[in-house]
Amino acid sequence: MLVTLKEILKIAEEKKIAVGAFNTPNLESLMAILDAAEELQLPVIIQAAQCHEGFVPVSVIGPVMIARAKEATVPVCVHLDHGETLDYVQKVLDIGFTGVMFDGSTMPYEENVANVKKAVEMAARTGASVEAELGSMGRRESGAGDGAGAGDDTKIYTDPMQAKAFVQETGIDALACSFGTTHGIYLTEPRLDFSVVEQVRKETDGMPVVMHGGSGVSSEDFRKAVAAGVRKINYFTYMDKAAGTALAEYVAGVETGMPVFFTEAAVKAGAAMKENIKEAMKVFANID
Ligand SMILES: [Zn+2]
Question: Which domain holds residue 97?
Answer without folding.
Answer: 5-284
